[in-house]
Amino acid sequence: MEYLTAQEIADRWNLSKRTVQQLCAAGRIPGARKFTRAWAIPADAEKPEDPRSAQPKPVPLLAVSENLMPLMNTAFPPGRCRETAEAMAEGAQRDIALAEYHYFTGEPEAAAQEAESYLHSADPGARLSACLLYAYANLSLGRIQRARFALGELNAALSQGGKSPAAEAASAFVAAAGAVLFHLPLPEGLPDLQTFLHLLPPGLRAFALYVYAHYRYLQGDYAASAGIVEGALAMGAGRYPIPAIYLHLVAVMDHMGLKETDKARTHLLSAWELARPDDLIEGFGEHHGLLGGMLESVIKPEWPEDFKRIIHITYRFSAGWRRVHNPETGHDVADDLTTTEFAVCMLAARDWNNPDIAEHLHISLATVKRHLSSAMQKLGVTRRGDLQKFMLK
Fold this sequence. Notes:
mainly alpha; Serine Threonine Protein Phosphatase 5, Tetratricopeptide repeat; three-stranded antiparallel sheet; 61% helix
């Protein structure tokens, strides 16, 4: 069989090379094969129809869910994350799974590149997954307009009509995740969790419960949020490492809010036990400011090199996160503090006294005072009570 390059096909069909590559990645050109980073396309391949010109058809649950965050939805043994992703079906499922793997292991460049090919895929699960991963990966890369574009695509998918209940559940899942993890208001038209939770497969259902627990945390309802986590784990969410890591992390946030440090430590170590065999450290960096110094207290003394990598993720991710969150909400979360200064200020804003902060973070009282003084000077405040308006909720 004669094969042509993506550029040759693009010239023949009057399309861009990028569009042809996206069609190949989406599985819409039969017989197209990928060698390293180049596509080989049968010379007699026919140009696919533009899916936007046709009325969308209802999509069965399986067709949506099999490519909707497939790695997140898989119960793999710790230590076999990449192996699990690479063993998935060739095409969209494997590509999205590898984008997930690279994102959750703190490799945003690779995740964004892999997800980009599916931003306009005709496969709804692949497209929604790609938009979610692309949005968050581009935060860490400082590509804010690309992140905003992908978030907009998630909200647009939520508002589209003519979908099956399964497709609506998938759209609601990713739109809620996009909004809550940015601490933004829930998008208009988002259905109640109870109306779509049962339509999600088990692993995604577990992550949806993490999103809901995070939402309740942001409302200050720490006990209810912690209860959601415990319920999800009791129902088997712990079998799915990626959702389970995030559930344990939100439980750390809850118990620190309740000043239950022993319970917070237990959940952090549970998350770490799941994450460390596969290097799934992205979530720890994302949540640093909300964990109330727990990373400094627990991870830094025992795993100092891992802690450094997590803090690198924190700086990179939070810089992009604030560039979306702060303008959208008007909440001026501090952007010029060190991670230690931020942790100290988060605890101080929650009425921890200096001796307790020092004991928790394993630093001296003088060091706590120095961090507070430096942070307050940077923020232009003179009273401890004024710190709260610059902290995460």
